[in-house]
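User: structure tokens for this one?
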Amino acid sequence: MTNPDAPYHAHIYFDDSERVAATGLRKDFGRDPAILFVGDMTDGAAGPHPIAQYEVHFLARSKDGVVAAIEATGLRALVHPLTDDDLADHTTLAHWIGEPVELDVTVLDPPGINQGIPRFGISDF
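Assistant:
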């Protein structure tokens, strides 16, 4: 059973035709008390993500609601826990909504190592 306080986040992907839906969902997440952090919309590659996206941070207890909100928009997303294994978080532990995006896994931290990049809000968990 997943700890209800376990950190999670979702990467919401969008292209130009989906920008309005992505912006609306981002605003909705910004008003949702279950969402702990809403990231900036990026227009290009960022980390392992090769296309425009933004991320939202939440706890495991809110996962079902976050997934439902994303699914309702028809946007693509990657939802995953935050463990000490960045590669597994983005691959074997991840859940895709919609068509998966091929990630650049070469930039992910090896298991047990965080190279100083906050992955949950302002600081690492």
